[in-house]
Amino acid sequence: MKTCKLLIITLAGLGLLAGCGESPQTENAQTTQAPPATAQAPAQAVTPREDFQIPPEGFQTDANRGQELFITHCAQCHGNDAHGTEQGPPLIHRIYEPGHHSDLAFYIAIARGTHQHHWEFGDMAPVPEVDGEDAAHIIAWIRREQRTAGIH
Fold this sequence. Notes:
Elements: H1 2-20, H2 29-32, H3 63-73, H4 75-78, H5 103-112, H6 132-148
């Protein structure tokens, strides 16, 4: 009897843990309609940039400047409003809230690129035209847009 109870408790616990993971497919259709993968992983996607520096604590960001930089360097894949395109995922999405993808995750993606992990778009290449200060402005704009959308 004790073994049966332990088995039921264990299975229930595993079921709860399995439900904790977030999948883009479980969100509402408006923000998660991810088109099929079209981007191919560039060879340089994992090449670190030695010149990239995260700004020091206290650096003053400008979300409006971040929007301009985003449109120039990121919109081709993520869309002008960061709601995604056929080449890249939406960043104004719960998956990218600070509790799941910290600002550091954005810095790393910009500086080093990132492997595909939530969406089917392929790997993201580094963005060599964006330095650490520009990245800070971009992140400030993304976070502002997420707050406006009620994400965090």
